[in-house]
Amino acid sequence: MNKLTKVGLSALCGTLASVAAANAGTMEVLGGATVTHTSNGKTVTGNPLGMNTALTFKGSGELDNGSTFTLTVTGADQDGYTSGNINIVTPSMGSFKINSRTGGIGLGGYDDVMPTAWEETWGFGMGTGIDLPKGVSSSMSLGYTSPTVAGMTLKAAYTPKNDATFVNDKAVSGATAANLHSGYDVVLDINPSFGIDALSGLNIFVGGSETVVDKEASLSKGNTQDRQEGIGGAVFSYGPVSIGYQRSVEFSGLETAGSTEYYQNNIFGVSFNINDNLSISYGDVESRKHKVGSGASDKNVIMSAESFQIAYTMGGMSIKVADGEVSNASYGTASSSDYDGRTIALSLAF
After folding, report:
1. CB 60 within 8 A of CB 26
2. Which fold is adopted by the domain 101-349?
3. Over the stretch 8-32, which tens digit does the pLDDT of each residue have?
């Protein structure tokens, strides 16, 4: 296999600026800088140098009834605006979030929550092309998180149109993804300790999502069902060890021969904190893409990836290494879809 090598230098800034005004809350500007060098023997590399210019603006304040609110706006990877949200936390009714593509509400917050020393198995630069359940989190949406009762927290999200766009004030998304309409997510997050110390590190989660599809729209003439997604899994932590497994599925609702009927993902992870500074992990992911019909050589394609990772922190500096391999990247079956690689990053926090 050809080697993929990616060397990263990250300078993660602390608070760059903080402005406070009487009775008007506070505004912080946070920043990070990342320089990378990437090479891949199976593609035309061109200029291997890259840079991340991430800035996060965070404003917070408090209302007369004790509710707090936070505005977060993020720009990453040289984008002027990547994502943002407004989160209102009430004293007793839970929190309400207006989401703009942050990916962290509803089902999107659980696409992969397996323990790891650094990054997700598929997310450290290997280019796996995996399809993960996102629910409504990639669209302009509304989220709700309930207070935790008996270790259980309910999370719900809704969007009037699940078209994966963001919309400015006094604007609309228009005809984008005309076949997709409203969608909703529901997730139940459980920490069933029941007062038993041995169970205090157990977290169980299960959730589902449905998006209404216009079956007469030109983009979805083959649809007979709405789009449905589901996810479930558990993570158990005991002392320095964490282990987890989760499974998810996304049904497209398509039944036309040759169309993708569903994606099914199985993700496993285990991590070990050797001490306060050093941690290691192993992760494995398997994703099946299933097409409608029979006889096609690519009716069932399984993309798989695994990663060994190690992270060491010393004061404001951390060194992270991820080594792994992927087969059938982006659900391709050519030999060029199989490769292994390594990512090394040096991060400086100041």
Report:
1. yes
2. Porin (2.40.160)
3. 444 444 444 444 444 456 778 776 6
Residue 186 and residue 135: Cα distance in Å, rounded? 9
* Residues 348, 318: Cα–Cα separation, whole Å: 7
Q: Is the dihedral of CA 161, 167, 171, 175 positive or negative?
A: negative
Q: How far apart are CA 105 and CA 281, in angstroms?
A: 26
Pair 243, 115: CB distance under 8 Å? yes
DSSP 118: S
Amino acid at 187: V
* List of E strands, 191-316: 202-213, 227-238, 241-251, 260-273, 278-291, 300-314
3-state secondary structure of 330: helix
Pairing of strands 68-75, 83-89: antiparallel
> Which residue would you say has higher pLDDT here, 233 or 83?
233
Fill in the amino acid letter for 129: G
> Do 4 and 340 touch, CB atoms closer than 8 A?
yes
Q: 219 in helix, strand or coil? A: helix
* b/e 251-281 (16+ beta carbons within 10 angstroms → b): bbbbeeeeebbbbbbbbbbbbbbeeeeebbb
The count of C-alpha atoms lying within 13 angstroms of the C-alpha of 166, restricted to the half-sphere facing its C-beta, is: 15
205 in helix, strand or coil?
strand
pTM over 0.85: no
Q: Which residues, including other chains, have CB under 8 Å from residue 193's CB and lie 6 or more apart?
A: 151, 199, 200, 202
> What does the pLDDT look like over 47-86, one tens digit per residue?
566 666 667 788 888 888 888 888 777 766 665 556 677 8
Cβ atoms of 246 and 113 closer than 8 Å = yes
